[in-house]
Design goal:
The chain is of the alpha/beta class and 222 residues long. The chain is built from eight helices and five strands. It has a single domain, classed as P-loop containing nucleotide triphosphate hydrolases (Rossmann fold, 3-Layer(aba) Sandwich), CATH 3.40.50. The radius of gyration is 17 Å and the shape is globular.
Length: 222
């Protein structure tokens, strides 16, 4: 059985990843494919507990190194429990965030640098890389504004405050933004950038174009 395909979506909080991964999953299902959809942090019982700690505003005292270690603990569990078994079974895996997020948020935002993130990825994740990464890059102001409004609504509805990252100063998010663009420049064959304040459908069309091209190339190779 041929190995499956690993697709990730990346971007700042509020960039529209969750909406687009849901639409892409529906598009694949209509074509007879049955993708596994997951997210990071989270996606496993252990990961969901880690996610709750990482996103909770009450976890403000986490050191950058602790934060990064928790991200990789979540990721290693997700690879072992969800991602690798699905790929071995020939499935398509759609993942909302992967190591690019850690490089952007902890490497860039927390200023730990890319070197330590990539070294830990090699050790703890076996160097697993997505076959395709879609990087959503709407304007900085649009992304952060949507993320903060979303978390305000969620807190009003559930009482849970999961905006620990959104509470960071704009300088932090600008460093994340810059690191994402650095990653895309470094790995242009893997990372497809979708830039600008486009409509949901316009973004979906560009994502579908990139995924369809990859599927055709995979089919041509047999």
């Amino acid at each position: 059985m041929p190995r499956g395909i690993f697709i990730t979506l990346e971007g700042l909080d509020g960039s529209g990843k969750t909406t687009q991964i849901r639409k892409l999953s529906t598009w694949l299902q209509k074509r007879g494919l049955d993708p596994v959809v997951t997210r990071q942090p989270g996606g496993t019982l252990t990961g969901d507990r880690i996610r709750a700690l990482l996103l909770d505003a009450r976890s403000a005292a986490l050191s950058p190194m602790t934060e990064m270690a928790m991200m990789f603990a979540d990721r290693a569990q997700a690879i072992a429990e969800v991602i690798e078994p699905a790929l071995a079974a020939g499935r398509i895996v759609l993942c909302d965030r992967f190591t690019d997020s850690t490089e952007a948020y902890q490497g860039g935002g927390r200023q730990l640098g890319s070197e330590i993130v990539l070294a830990l990825h090699k050790i703890l994740c076996g160097g697993l890389q997505p076959d395709l990464t879609i990087l959503l890059l709407p304007s900085f102001e649009a992304s952060i504004g949507r993320a903060r409004r979303r978390n305000t609504r969620a807190e009003a509805e559930t009482g849970a405050n999961e905006d620990r990252f959104e509470q960071e100063a704009d300088a932090f998010h600008h460093r994340v933004w810059d690191k994402y663009r650095e990653i895309a420049t470094r790995e242009p064959e893997r990372v497809v950038r979708i830039v600008g304040d486009l409509t949901i459908e316009e973004i979906h069309e560009q994502i579908v174009e990139a995924v369809a091209e990859m599927l055709m190339l995979r089919e041509a190779k047999g």
